[in-house]
Structures are given as structure tokens and as C-alpha cells.
Specification:
heterotrimer, A mainly alpha, B alpha/beta, C alpha/beta, A: mainly alpha, two-stranded antiparallel ribbon, 11 helices, 67% helix, C: alpha/beta, Rossmann fold, six-stranded mixed β-sheet, four-stranded antiparallel β-sheet, 12 helices, 10 strands, 42% helix, globular
Chain lengths: 263, 271, 291
């Protein structure tokens, strides 16, 4: 019963952020990330944080979910902080114990870096939280299209992403079933040391891969029989159309970005 | 000119000695509903793939509406005219939403978005799946998935649909849904149906049955003609439907009975 | 009583919790052949996965020989060895390089001695009607679908289970493959006296094989009894959209039309004889009383 999983972390909604064109959202995110690297004052970071909070509120996103998204980078954040605290030199010595020494510059840079990482993650998670994987794929495909001239198969890449999204729940369900079937034959996936456990996965992984290949084979046939011939010259049911609000919002974002970078 | 014409078609897979098709001759007329039955390994699926240019014969010819499949220039036109539904409903749905999946074919035909939208909604309505546009396929039942797959073919507006054991993985309700859909398409939309199956009850719905055996079509005829010949069916490794089997047994014991296909027909001719 | 289920409820904890089993009480005796019918989603698959401890019930107890299988004193591995479960499309779980190795997977997990494992593999292959010498070293992936299915079933039989549960074992097989598998089930039940639980959508198969039929609907067992009793309840079955075996349907319709036939036979030959006798009587009756 793994079929109920949600892919990515998209939270459906109808806010103005949700309804924005995915291309615009992706571009704004890229822009904001770039700006983030130019900010070098605490006021700048504060303003940026304020912006993030405003967007979160507008999108009616549960703050908890956003904070939970920061969990995986927790270790990285702590590491960055400590490295800077103890290794960056400059300014007055604030604290010293034998060879360990914290200087003023270390504190500043440390907190700068940490703020930067946290804000970066928060801003990108706004994108993934408010945009469905499907829209995201469409958006990326459109943005990559100009690169097709240089041989980048944008259409095919997008198709691959779509198929991956389509088949993740199916394969998870299948993994669950195979696992149960092997357990019924006495397989033990839960005990033993790392090597024993890795070995125990063979009866799960082999059938899973075989099944994935079989599915891929059949899917390829089904796609071919429905006239698929690569990404070229296809049209789309859902064409992305820029609305005027998208343009206003983009300009607003650009303005804010410039403004923040002045601090 | 028949819609599908196969003449002396032979085919072998690279890694196998025996010929999968060993000289198949078959004509399917426009608007016909033909069932192809045969044991596993008799060449049914290979035959189906010939009709959609997924395979091209080693010997002999396959022509669809006069277009020969061996000519690479005809491939896309033929695939638009002959749609194909496969056995495993999971492995033929490409998109994460029902409507995007149905749109896949028309998108490949490079139709304008407005027309795709219209065709998608129309096709979903025809298979009784209207209202499921934005459902993810993996949450549908097997029968619903197969109907979405059929809608995906209909949206390409084909003349003919080839279904390769479309009900083999479905439960009875799903089977009923799919068979009713197929029969209706044949009756109301005049779409030619080629149904590959080993369920004899399903074959009984067709206008004509072709029996496949060791890569050849050993016999074609109306369901009544075919089911009468128990010897032939047994030889092909198949079973007649229960009703027919019971009727045949009664006949052997001297009860005079006409040809019967359904329980009601048998009951009515007995008393 | 071999297996007892006491007031079992099972709920899948998803975003919207799904009640798969809603108060099931059931006793299974050694040597029974149980036919389990019901639509997709009625709870059949959940029920059988509870029987060998793959799932734990949300409420209620499952007793095997009087012991709660989910208690500390019972080893689940032991239960799974004694209650064999063949899933739908079991050939999808094959993974070893050779047929013999794959069938040996279960016995190996049970820590049996090398000779014993070897013996089990031979016996299991023999049971499913495949020749040991010619199949043992072949890759399971190069065999036909029907053969793969039988090898997967042999993989469970090699555990020598006392109870064998099969979830739609005939699905996707052609008539010949189906016949062979039915023959195997009959043999396992009659000659080896295995207790069998068979899930199937084919009412004919259930009617002809089972000693007891259970009908499930929305997480409950709504009907149970000998095949003749269960399939006598045409209306109840119709309510939940289940068909009668074709033969039963015909006999019942004949009876309604006044032909005096019994409706509790399921084999084609028996139905034929029943109809012939009734027709004969009817014509004698008519002759003895000319209008």
C-alpha cells in the first residue's frame, strides 16, 4: 500500500504563487539565488528573509513543512558555521582556548554563510512546494528549448522526467509486493550486519530491475505505436502561456532583487 | 481492398529457431470484429505487432488500407490508422495525469492544443471515463486503466484498434468494462476491432474467429462454426466456453440441439 | 482448529485510512480446500497476508494451532514456512541464475541441510510436473510464462507448507496452463492432504475444487458454506455483482422452467447426466399421461 505516496513535496493550492507560470517561477528562483550570493550585509539578509516570509504567507504554505525541508542540510549548516568560526581570521580575538581561537571575522562570515545556505534552501523549496512535478517538467523543457540548437535534447529529457514520475509509484508498489513474496519464502530483510543486509537485498533488487526493464520495453513499444518519434515536432495539450500577472510578478521580483542587492 | 491484408507472412525472432509466424494469410474488412485465439506461443502477439508496424515481416506482405508496412514512409500514417492496446495496463500509460496520457498520441501527431483538448475530452467520454481528466493513472482500477489506454488510441482517430490480450490482467468487472467498450466502438463508431485473446467467452463476441496454431492461422469462421469443432479447438490447446461444452456433451448423448452460445439459448432450446 | 481468526480488523494507515478488513471471524480446519471469492478491494488479499504474518492485524488475533502468531512466543519465520503463500504473478519474484537455485531459496532460508534442500528441489519440481534433470540448470528467465509460474509455485512448495494459499494462480495462463495448474491443486489437496486456500475469479474452478467457499465484500465475509450452499444464493451474489458458475446458472434456469434437475452439481459430466435424466423422466411423464 505504498501507492499513496506523494512525489516531490508539492502541496497543491490556488494561491497567486501556485498559479504563476512555472517558467517565471524557475527564472525568479534562479535570479534570487544569484542575488543571494551578492548580499553581504545583515540588513540585506534580513530583507531577503522578510521576502521569503511574505511569499510563504501569500502561498499559504505551512511553515512547518518549509522548516522540515531544512533538516537534511542541518549537518552542512553546522559544519559551515564551525569551520568559519575557527578558521576564518581577522578582527579582534573574541575567545581563545589553547590552539582554538575565534576571531571577529569568523563570526561574521560564519553567520553570513549559514544565512545564505538556509535562505537558498528555503527559496528553492518554495518553488518545489508550489509547483507540481508536471509543471516543473514543462517549465524546464521550455526553458531548455533554445539549447536544442546546440544538441541538447530538451524534449527527450522532459519525457524521461515525466516517465520517471509516472512509474515511481508503480515500482514502489512492485517493490513492496516482491519483498512480501520473498518474505513468504523466509527471506529476512531486517536483521544481520551491513553485508548480510546488502546480500539480502539481491532477491528484491534482481526481480525489481528485471521488471523495470520489462516495463521499459513494453512502454517503448506502446509509445512507438502511438507515433512517438522523439521530442521534435510534438505539440502539447497544455501550452504554457504567460499571463500579464506573471510579467508583473517577474518585474516586481526583479525590482526587489536589485533593491535588496543594494544593502 | 480489405483494411488489413496479410499474405504469406513469415517472421522469426533473432534468438529463436522456430518461426513465430510461418506463413500467415488473413484479411480483415473495414468495420469487422475479429478475434484471434490460440495458445501461448502460437504467434498471436507477433501477428498483432505486424498490424502496427512494430514488426515487419521477413517474408510476405502486410498492407493496411493499401499501404505496405515494409515501406518506411508509411509507418506513421499506418500507426495513426491502426491503434494498439497492450496487455499490461500499467506499461502503456506514459503520463502522470489521465488527460496528458490521452493527449500523448495527438501531441505526437503535432495537432494544435485546442484540437487535442477536444479530442481528449471526446475520447474519455466515449470510453466512459469523463471526469477523470486530472486523476493520476496509478490510482485507477485495471479496467479503468485499460479504458484510458483505449481513449489514448481513440484520440488519434484510427480506423482500426488491435488489442493484444487486453483483459488478461483484469478482474471480471474490469473485463466486462473493457469488452463492452470494445463492442460499442465496433458497433457505434464502426471501428475495426482485432481482439487477441485466450478467453473463449470473449472470442464469442466477435463476428469472426481466427485460430492460430504454431505460427499459422489454422481456421477462420463464425464463433458458432468454430465452437462446433471441438476437435480443432482441443488441438489448438484451447477450450470451448462452458455453455458450448455442455451443449456438445448433450448432443453426443443424442439430445438434438441447435448451435447455442449463451446459457439462455441453451435453456430455451432444452425446454 | 488449525487456524482461527478472532474479530480481525485491518486498517491501512494512509492519508485517508482504508479499512480493508472489518470484523472477520474464521476457523480453518486441517485438510480443507477453501475457495475465497469477492471483488478486487473486498479484502481477500489482505486476509491471506495476515494468515502468514506478512501483515499484522490492527485489531484481533490470529491463532495457528491455538497460538497467537503475532505474540513473542511464536517465530514468524516458522509460521511462514508452514503457511505458504503464492502471490499473484509469482513468476515476478524469480531472481536466481538457475531454476534449482531459485527453488532452493526458501529451504535455504529455513537453514536445512544441503542434501535435504536438494531433495526438496527435486520433489517440488516433480510436483509441478517439470523434469528435474532438464530444468535444474536452466535460467528461469528463458522459460515460457506457464513454466515460470510453475517454478515460482515450486519455490513455495519446497518449504513443504501445511497450508498453501494461492492468490489468483491461474491469471494470465492459457487454457492448457490453467488445466495443468488445476490438476496440481487437486493433487496437492487429495493426495498430499495439504490445506489449500484459493483466491479466484473463476467460479467454475472454485465450485469444482473447494470444500468450502467464502464470499467477501467490503472487508467482511458475507457468505460461507459448501459450494452448493453458497451458489444457491443467487440473489445475494448478484447484489455484489458476482456471477454463478455457468453450469449452475444453466441448471437453475432449467429448474425455473419446470425441468426437475438438481442444482448442486458442478462438473460438466454431472450436469449433463442430470439434464439427461430429467429430460427422460419428463418425456416418460408426458407419455404416461397423453393429453
Amino acid at each position: 500500500m505504498l501507492t499513496d505516496i506523494t512525489i516531490g513535496q508539492h502541496i497543491p493550492g490556488s494561491s497567486i504563487i501556485h498559479r504563476m507560470d512555472p517558467r517565471v517561477k524557475i527564472l525568479i528562483t534562479l535570479l534570487m539565488i544569484t542575488i543571494l550570493f551578492f548580499i553581504d550585509t545583515f540588513i540585506g539578509y534580513f530583507l531577503f528573509l522578510l521576502l521569503v516570509v511574505i511569499i510563504l504567507l501569500t502561498a499559504k504554505l505551512p511553515i512547518k513543512r518549509v522548516l522540515r525541508g531544512l533538516k537534511p542540510v542541518f549537518f552542512l549548516v553546522i559544519l559551515t558555521l564551525f569551520l568559519h568560526l575557527f578558521l576564518t581570521r581577522g578582527g579582534e580575538v573574541i575567545w581563545q582556548w589553547r590552539f582554538l581561537r575565534i576571531e571577529e571575522a569568523g563570526v561574521f562570515t560564519g553567520f553570513f554563510m549559514v544565512s545564505r545556505i538556509l535562505l537558498l534552501i528555503m527559496f528553492t523549496s518554495i518553488l518545489t512546494l508550489t509547483t507540481s512535478p508536471l509543471e516543473l517538467t514543462d517549465g524546464i523543457e521550455y526553458l531548455l528549448k533554445p539549447l536544442a540548437r546546440f544538441g541538447l535534447p530538451a524534449g527527450e529529457l522532459a519525457m524521461m522526467m515525466t516517465i520517471a514520475l509516472r512509474f515511481i509509484p508503480t515500482l514502489l508498489e512492485e517493490a513492496d509486493k516482491i519483498m512480501k513474496a520473498q518474505k513468504a519464502r523466509g527471506a529476512d530483510f531486517e536483521s544481520g550486519n551491513i553485508i548480510q543486509r546488502a546480500k539480502a537485498l539481491v532477491p528484491l533488487l534482481v526481480p525489481l530491475f528485471i521488471s523495470a526493464f520489462r516495463r521499459a520495453d513494453e512502454l517503448a513499444l506502446a509509445m512507438e505505436s502511438r507515433c512517438y518519434r522523439g521530442g521534435t515536432s510534438r505539440t502539447r495539450l497544455h501550452e504554457l502561456k504567460l499571463k500579464s500577472t506573471d510579467i508583473y510578478l517577474f518585474l516586481l521580483a526583479a525590482g526587489l532583487a536589485v533593491a535588496i542587492s543594494f544593502f | 481492398m480489405s483494411q488489413i491484408e496479410m499474405q504469406g507472412v513469415e517472421f522469426s525472432y533473432r534468438d529463436q529457431q522456430d518461426k513465430a509466424l510461418a506463413g500467415v494469410n488473413l484479411k480483415v474488412e473495414k468495420g469487422e470484429f475479429i478475434a484471434v485465439i490460440g495458445a501461448n506461443g502460437s504467434g498471436k502477439s507477433t501477428l498483432a505487432k505486424m498490424m502496427n508496424v512494430l514488426l515487419v515481416p521477413d517474408e510476405g506482405t502486410v498492407t493496411i488500407n493499401g499501404l505496405e508496412t515494409a515501406d518506411p514512409d508509411n509507418i506513421w500514417q499506418i500507426r495513426q490508422q491502426v491503434g494498439m492496446v497492450f496487455q499490461n495496463p500499467d506499461n502503456q500509460l506514459v503520463a502522470t495525469l489521465v488527460e496528458d496520457d490521452v493527449a500523448f498520441g495527438p501531441e505526437n501527431l503535432a495537432l494544435p492544443p485546442e484540437e487535442i483538448r477536444q479530442r481528449v475530452d471526446q475520447a474519455l467520454e466515449t470510453v466512459g471515463m469523463d471526469g477523470y481528466q486530472s486523476h493520476p493513472p496509478h490510482k485507477l482500477s485495471g479496467g479503468q486503466k485499460q479504458r484510458v489506454a483505449i481513449a489514448g488510441i481513440l484520440a488519434m482517430m484510427p480506423d482500426c484498434i488491435v488489442l493484444d490480450e487486453p483483459t488478461a490482467m483484469l478482474d471480471p468487472i474490469g473485463r466486462k468494462e473493457v469488452l463492452e467498450t470494445i463492442s460499442r466502438l465496433n458497433r457505434e463508431e464502426n471501428i475495426t476491432v482485432v481482439l487477441i485473446t485466450h478467453f473463449m467467452e470473449e472470442a464469442g463476441l466477435a463476428d469472426r474467429i481466427a485460430i492460430m496454431q504454431e505460427g499459422r492461422i489454422s481456421r477462420t469462421g463464425s464463433p458458432r462454426e468454430i465452437f462446433r469443432d471441438t476437435g480443432l479447438i482441443a488441438e489448438a490447446g484451447l477450450d470451448v466456453p462452458e455453455v458450448v461444452a455442455l451443449a456438445n456433451q448433450l448432443r453426443q448423448q443424442g439430445v438434438s440441439l441447435p448451435e447455442v452460445m449463451t446459457a439462455d439459448e441453451l435453456v430455451n432450446s432444452l425446454c | 482448529m488449525l487456524i482461527e481468526l478472532e474479530n480481525i480488523r485491518h486498517i491501512y494507515q494512509l492519508d485517508d485510512p482504508v479499512v480493508a478488513l472489518d470484523g472477520v471471524d474464521l476457523g480453518i480446519e486441517r485438510g480443507e480446500f477453501i475457495g475465497l471469492i469477492g471483488h478486487t478491494g473486498s479484502g481477500k488479499s489482505t486476509l491471506v497476508q495476515l494468515l502468514n504474518g506478512l501483515l499484522k492485524p490492527s485489531e484481533g488475533r490470529i491463532l495457528f494451532e491455538g497460538k497467537d502468531i503475532n505474540s513473542q512466543e511464536v517465530e514468524l519465520k516458522e509460521i511462514r514456512r508452514r503457511v505458504g503463500l503464492v502471490f499473484q504473478y509469482p513468476e515476478h519474484q524469480l531472481f536466481e541464475e538457475t531454476v534449482a537455485k531459485d527453488i532452493a531459496f526458501g529451504p535455504k532460508n529455513a537453514d536445512l541441510a544441503e542434501e535435504e534442500i536438494d531433495k526438496r528441489v527435486r520433489e517440488a519440481l516433480d510436483l509441478v510436473g517439470l523434469d528435474f534433470e532438464s530444468f535444474k540448470d536452466r535460467s528461469p528467465f528463458n522459460l515460457s510464462g506457464g513454466q515460470q509460474r510453475r517454478i515460482a509455485i515450486a519455490g513455495v512448495l519446497a518449504l513443504k507448507p501445511e497450508v498453501l494459499i494461492l492468490d489468483e494462480p491461474m491469471a494470465g495462463l492459457d487454457p492448457a496452463g490453467r488445466r495443468k495448474l488445476l490438476e496440481l491443486l487437486r493433487h496437492l489437496h487429495r493426495d498430499i492432504e495439504m490445506t489449500i486456500i484459493l483466491i479466484s475469479h473463476r467460479m467454475e474452478e472454485i465450485a469444482r475444487l473447494a470444500s468450502r467457499v467464502l464470499v467477501m465484500d467490503r472487508g467482511k465475509i458475507i457468505l460461507e458454506g459448501r459450494p452448493a450452499e453458497v451458489f444457491n444464493e443467487r440473489e445475494r451474489l448478484k447484489d455484489i455483482d458476482l456471477d454463478l458458475p455457468v453450469v449452475t446458472d444453466i441448471l437453475k434456469k432449467l429448474k425455473e422452467k419446470g425441468l426437475k434437475v438438481r442444482t448442486d452439481v458442478f462438473a460438466l459430466e454431472d450436469a449433463r447426466d442430470e439434464i439427461l435424466t430429467a429430460l427422460e423422466k419428463q418425456s416418460q411423464f408426458r407419455e404416461s399421461r397423453p393429453c
